[in-house]
């Protein structure tokens, strides 16, 4: 499946009172396009990390999973440096999860591929500046998008970050051994780091970056 076909598939999801599709915005969709095309050019061991869903301060604005506008203001990682001048954000926000994840990635200079169990922003009814966990049926919906990502990138390994990401990955790829990593939010930073260290041993860090 070409990346453009995948992107157009994403745009078909309509907004509801509890779900916002950021990819109906052309600028946000283009940010994702730039990110995915760049990831296609990265060589070496490819690890796909599956998170939960876009947050209202992070991926909902940037279009890129596990990111926020704030992380692109920092230097020290090849991906951030490569994409910074190409991306367009409606506003710059900081998100705790993105900050923790990229603090780790910058220190190790590794570049996993990111996706979410649900690529759209789930929020309480009518409250767009809030987050809620994806429901079971939404994770089931996300399985098809995750399989598309797998077909596009053929990752060597797949890991879930948090219970929702792990659940979606296991549904999408029942034949694979899915690694589960603690989500860094709500006091999970130390366990997240330990999980990432197991997934990216020091002697593999240069090959993954």
Automatic annotation (TrEMBL):
Domain (Uracil-DNA glycosylase-like): residue spans on this chain: 45-186
Q: In terms of domain of life, where is this protein from?
A: Bacteria
Q: Which Gene3D superfamilies match?
A: Uracil-DNA glycosylase-like domain
InterPro entries associated with the record: Uracil-DNA_glycosylase-like, Uracil-DNA_glycosylase-like_sf
Signal peptide limits = none
Protein name, please? Uracil-DNA glycosylase-like domain-containing protein
Q: Which organism is it from?
A: Azomonas macrocytogenes
> What broad taxonomic lineage does this protein's source fall under?
Bacteria, Pseudomonadati, Pseudomonadota, Gammaproteobacteria, Pseudomonadales
């Amino acid at each position: 499946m070409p990346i453009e076909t995948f992107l157009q598939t994403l745009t078909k999801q309509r907004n509801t009172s509890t779900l916002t599709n950021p990819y109906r915005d052309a600028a946000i969709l283009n940010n994702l396009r730039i990110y995915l095309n760049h990831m296609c050019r990265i060589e070496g061991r490819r690890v796909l990390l599956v998170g939960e869903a876009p947050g209202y301060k992070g991926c909902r604005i940037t279009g890129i999973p596990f990111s926020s506008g704030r992380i692109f203001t920092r230097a020290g990682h090849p991906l951030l440096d490569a994409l910074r001048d190409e991306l367009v954000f409606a506003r710059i926000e900081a998100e705790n999860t993105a900050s923790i994840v990229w603090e780790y990635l910058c220190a190790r200079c590794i570049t996993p591929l990111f996706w979410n169990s649900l690529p759209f922003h789930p929020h309480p009814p009518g409250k767009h500046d809030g987050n809620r966990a994806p429901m079971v049926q939404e994770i089931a919906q996300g399985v098809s998008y995750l399989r598309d990502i797998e077909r596009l990138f053929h990752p060597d390994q797949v890991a879930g970050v948090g219970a929702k990401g792990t659940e979606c990955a296991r549904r999408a790829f029942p034949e694979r051994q899915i690694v589960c990593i603690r989500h860094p939010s709500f006091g999970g930073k130390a366990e997240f780091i330990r999980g990432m260290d197991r997934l990216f041993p020091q002697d593999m860090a240069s090959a993954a970056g």
